[in-house]
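User: Could you go from structure to sequence for me? I need the amino acid at each position, not a summary. Structure tokens:
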């Protein structure tokens, strides 16, 4: 009789579990297993974190699309998100937003893990745009993996698998960019904001910036840039959507050329860099 009673209770418990009326301790743990809230400074970092963290992360981006890291002020709603975050992934290369606001952001959340994504990258000429080289992007991705594995060790294998898959994608991107840019003869391109130094260094190109140290060119400087563009047969000037393009447009008009947008802060990292390489290649053919 006792054995039959125990068997009946067991069968009832199993039935309730299947029906969803009861929840197992394992299921309860899964329900409480919330996503890791992380903050990044720029959109390309969001891509990197989401590729590694997958469904385990919720990413907040401080610099919204169309805004410049050189001048953006965080909103109160963003500061509230920072106060709840477990990790802040800095670019760590001297991005002006971080130089200006990082101490304040850290003070809002003393328990937040601060990760320098640029650790292990050589900073060239104090240029903060390190992410625009796929080789540097790989270092940033590895740093992101290490931080996620540290804060969530039980899912380390998941993060490692995602990281390795994305690193292979970045290797293929590098190969494609080298192929796209391999046959151009005029390897000089003019840009308004000098964001593409690491990209140029990686692929044996030279960028000529219109803006220097955040300042528009003087009238004399404009004349020199126009003369330089003519001497080098440059017909295309690349501009970032985050900046005023009037100076670039003025130069383009003087040389009979055109302005083309190239966004250093686009989130879709791989497709964006392919697009930029194609634009540079096409611009070089127009440059003659």
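Assistant: Here is the amino acid at each position, in order:
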């Amino acid at each position: 009789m006792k054995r039959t009673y125990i068997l009946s209770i067991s069968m009832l418990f199993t039935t309730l579990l299947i029906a969803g009326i009861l929840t197992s301790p394992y299921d309860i743990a899964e329900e409480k297993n919330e996503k890791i809230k992380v903050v990044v400074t720029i959109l390309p970092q969001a891509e990197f974190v989401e590729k590694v963290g997958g469904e385990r992360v919720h990413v907040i981006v401080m610099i919204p699309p169309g805004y410049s890291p050189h001048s953006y002020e965080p909103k109160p709603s963003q500061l509230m998100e920072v106060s709840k975050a477990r990790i802040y992934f800095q670019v760590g290369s001297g991005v002006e937003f971080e130089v200006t606001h990082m101490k304040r952001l850290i003070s809002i959340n003393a328990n937040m893990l601060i990760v320098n994504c640029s650790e292990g990258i050589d900073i060239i000429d104090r240029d903060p745009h390190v992410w625009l080289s796929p080789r540097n992007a790989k270092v940033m991705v590895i740093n992101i993996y290490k931080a996620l594995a540290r804060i969530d060790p039980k899912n380390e294998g998941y993060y490692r698998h995602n990281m390795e898959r994305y690193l292979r994608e970045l290797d293929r991107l590098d190969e494609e960019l080298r192929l796209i840019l391999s046959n151009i003869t005029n390897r000089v391109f003019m840009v308004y904001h000098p964001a593409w130094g690491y990209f140029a260094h990686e692929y044996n190109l030279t960028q000529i910036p219109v803006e220097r140290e955040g300042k528009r060119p003087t009238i004399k400087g404009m004349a020199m840039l126009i003369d330089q563009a003519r001497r080098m047969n440059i017909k295309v000037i690349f501009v970032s959507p985050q900046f005023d393009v009037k100076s670039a447009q003025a130069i383009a008009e003087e040389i009979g050329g055109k302005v083309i947008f190239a966004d250093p802060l686009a989130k879709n990292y791989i497709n964006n860099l392919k697009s930029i390489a194609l634009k540079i290649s096409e611009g070089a053919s127009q440059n003659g």
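One structural detail worth keeping in mind: DSSP finds eleven helices and eight strands in the chain.
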